[in-house]
């Protein structure tokens, strides 16, 4: 091979290296965007007791770069100690469920701070698909938080807390929910009656929990929300509502 040929190939190689796109590690702004995406994903997926903890500013999420220069990021979430203790008590009260979940690879967080490192798709600024599987650190972390707040949502739905004032926005939200599910001769008035009846016996968050459980037939079948469901039936009758088929 001539010297000219060798030099030509080296020149072409150097040009290719210069023109090739370089994936830089996420910037501070990228990490902020990624943190927002991840929190939004969890809010959409995890039962509503989690959203309440976020609203109360009891859940904190921090996204940072791993020390190694491989562009992996670390998602660290701080959970309220009271929520973790409550979830542990719920699980300990049902040893059979604890054994079943453990056998299936599910568990609630062990500490109030949980974290996972993962790689990101540079185009979408979202975790790579393989990182979201339950065998991966991020997938396991998501599943553990979801399990914890699923149990808390079910447990809290069964509680009846009176004496907590409802805002007009809260009442309107329940009335809107009512109008989507029921019909009546004067549906607005009937749903106002329905909302007032619920507010007399439940806190607004517990109503939201039970509305969530209503979308999960297994939850009601297992006994969760039974008292609430009976109250709903009574209000349907007294307020003149019938379910929309």
The total of beta strands comes to 7
Oligomeric state: single chain
The class by helix and strand makeup works out as mainly alpha
Task: Name the shape in a single word.
Answer: elongated
Residue share in helix: 55-70%
> Which ranges are low-confidence, i.e. pLDDT below 50, for 5 or more consecutive residues?
16-22
Number of helices: 12
Spatial strand sequence of the major β-sheet:
1-2-3
Proportion of strand residues: 5-15%
Task: Compute the CA-based radius of gyration.
Answer: 25 Å
Could you tell me how far the N terminus lies from the C terminus, measured between alpha carbons in angstroms?
82 Å
Largest sheet: 3 strands, antiparallel
Secondary-structure element pattern, one letter each: HHHEEHHEEEHHHEHHHHE
Question: Please, what is the average pLDDT?
Answer: 86
Could you write a compact summary of the structure shown?
The protein is mostly helical and 245 residues long. Helix content is 60%, strand content 11%.
Report on the architecture of this protein:
This protein is mainly alpha-helical and 245 residues long. The protein contains twelve helices and seven strands.
List its traits:
245 residues, mainly alpha, three-stranded antiparallel beta sheet, two-stranded antiparallel ribbon, 7 strands
Please describe the topology of this protein.
Layout: H1 3-19, H2 28-45, H3 48-55, E1 60-65, E2 73-78, H4 81-92, H5 95-103, E3 113-118, E4 120-121, E5 126-127, H6 129-132, H7 137-157, H8 168-181, E6 182-183, H9 187-199, H10 204-214, H11 217-221, H12 226-239, E7 242-243
Antiparallel strand pairs: 1-2, 2-3, 4-5, 6-7
């Amino acid at each position: 091979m001539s010297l000219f040929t060798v030099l030509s190939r080296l020149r072409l190689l150097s040009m290719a290296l210069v023109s090739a796109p370089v994936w830089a590690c996420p910037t501070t702004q990228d990490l902020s965007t990624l943190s927002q995406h991840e929190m939004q994903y969890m809010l959409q997926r995890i039962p509503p007791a989690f959203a309440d903890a976020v609203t109360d500013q009891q859940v904190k999420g921090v996204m940072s770069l791993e020390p190694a220069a491989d562009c992996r990021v670390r998602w660290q979430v701080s959970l309220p100690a009271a929520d973790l203790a409550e979830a542990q008590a719920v699980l300990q009260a049902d040893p059979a469920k604890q054994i079943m979940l453990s056998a299936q690879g599910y568990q609630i967080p062990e500490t109030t701070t949980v974290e996972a490192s993962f790689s990101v798709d540079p185009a979408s600024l979202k975790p790579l698909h393989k990182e979201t599987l339950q065998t991966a650190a991020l997938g396991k972390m998501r599943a553990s938080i979801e399990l914890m707040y699923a149990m808390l949502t079910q447990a809290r739905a069964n509680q009846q807390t009176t004496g907590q004032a409802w805002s007009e926005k809260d009442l309107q939200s329940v009335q809107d929910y009512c109008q989507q599910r029921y019909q009546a001769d004067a549906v607005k008035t009937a749903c106002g009656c329905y909302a007032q009846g619920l507010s007399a016996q439940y806190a607004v968050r517990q109503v939201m929990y039970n509305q969530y459980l209503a979308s999960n037939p297994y939850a009601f079948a297992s006994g969760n929300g039974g008292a609430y469901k009976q109250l709903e039936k009574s209000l349907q009758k007294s307020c003149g509502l019938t379910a929309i088929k």
